[in-house]
Design brief:
Elements lengths: L14 E5 L3 H12 L3 E6 L2 H20 L5 H10 E5 L7 E4 L6 H14 L5 E4 L6 H5 L8 E6 L8 E6 L5 H13 L3 E6 L6 H17 L5 H12 L5 H8 L1 H15 L8 H8 L12 E3 L5 E4 L2
Parallel strand pairs: 1-2, 1-4, 2-3, 4-5, 5-6, 7-8
Antiparallel strand pairs: 6-7, 9-10
Helix pairs in contact: 2-3, 7-9, 7-10
The structure holds acetoacetyl-coenzyme A.
Length: about 300
């Protein structure tokens, strides 16, 4: 292999570029900036990026108010986040965190980044279900493509699931692992198989909770209470599905069903209907539950 294409060492990473200033992208930006990295946050509009930075400022402001963070640390963190529009070409590590799990969109973003970024930069994707091997196959530096799957909410969740495409070089893997550790995260490693490790376990649980609701086994509240108090889960599966986004849950279930060719992953009709109605969960104000404007859960929706 050409050494210049082997990926960079962790110590060479100076700037993190993040495409997608939604929930995941801004969470990753917050974590990167809090751990000292200059972070370029980009999306289709300047407003989206500025809004994401403002939200991070507000979250950190609450920590300042509680005495958990100094105002100076808040300012330093915010100062490391640079909203940019269009691209993040100066980045030496790039995370494609665009929220939507749309293969064509991810491919086009990755190809554009590949064409314009430094040859040694690593291209990581925060995809929760798309094949990294397929993404790597679409760019000129397949050895430098890797999955870096953060959990939602990124600043609070300790895990990063690193996914190795079959093309991912050992250098890219080690560098990404070191970066995740520098972000204060614990790493697990997955081969490139549909939905990797975490979502392969999670989606059948969320699906099954939805089947139970659809079949009238119990109310949404009781299904969630069952998981909270009976299994010690921090959230019930239906509220968690609303939190993750029902469009995302459906997309991952469809990937699992299609790519494994196994109907045990089939999404329930109720989930399809909620998505068809545009009731994606917390982010749209309605999913399995109805939410107020502050995002507080009000009552069951269906
Ligand atoms: N940055 C820093 N601090 C933050 C923050 C942020 N972005 N957001 C909230 N906080 C702070 C809060 O202000 C609060 O601070 P105090 O303790 O000082 O009050 C603290 O963090 C805890 O906040 P909450 O009270 O809201 O936290 P909680 O105890 O209710 O827990 C939760 C919230 C962590 C989300 C918990 O309910 C949980 O773990 N839920 C399950 C989440 C989960 O399973 N995520 C994985 C989803 S799957 C996935 O992501 C993969 C995929 O591809 C679909």
């Amino acid at each position: 292999m050409d050494d210049s294409l082997a990926g960079m060492n962790f110590t060479d990473i100076r700037i993190i570029g993040i495409i997608g200033a939604g929930q995941m992208g801004s969470g990753i930006a917050q974590v990167a900036a809090q751990h000292g990295f200059r972070t370029l946050l980009t999306d289709v509009s300047a407003d989206l990026c500025a809004c994401a930075r403002d939200k991070i400022g507000a979250i950190l402001g609450k920590q300042v108010a509680k005495g958990k963070l100094t105002d100076a640390a808040r300012e330093e963190t915010l100062g490391r986040i640079e909203p940019t529009v269009g691209d993040a070409l100066a980045a030496s590590f790039f995370d494609n965190a665009a929220a939507t799990e749309n293969v064509e969109l991810k491919l086009s973003i990755l190809r554009a980044a590949d064409a314009r970024m430094k040859t040694e930069a690593i291209l990581a994707s925060n995809t929760s279900s798309i094949s990294l091997t397929r993404l790597a196959g679409a760019v000129s530096r397949p050895g430098q493509v890797i999955g870096m799957h953060f959990m939602n909410p990124v600043p609070l969740m300790k895990l990063v699931e690193i996914v190795r495409a079959i093309q991912t070089s050992p250098e890219t893997y080690e560098t990404t692992r070191a970066l995740a550790t520098a972000f204060g995260k614990t790493v697990i490693t997955s081969r490139d198989q549909p939905a990797f490790v975490v979502n392969r376990m999670l989606i059948p649980l969320l699906n099954e909770a939805c089947f139970a609701l659809q079949e009238g086994v119990a109310t949404a509240e009781d299904i969630d209470q069952g998981a909270r108090l009976g299994l010690n889960h921090p959230m019930g599966p239906l509220e968690l599905a609303d939190f993750v986004g029902l469009d995302t849950v459906l997309a991952i279930a469809e990937v699992l069903q299609r790519d494994f060719g196994d109907d045990k992953y089939r999404p329930p009709v109720l989930l399809r209907n909620l998505v068809a109605a545009g009731w994606y969960g917390k982010k749209t104000g309605r999913g399995f539950y109805v939410y107020d404007e502050k995002g507080e859960k009000q009552k069951a929706s269906v």
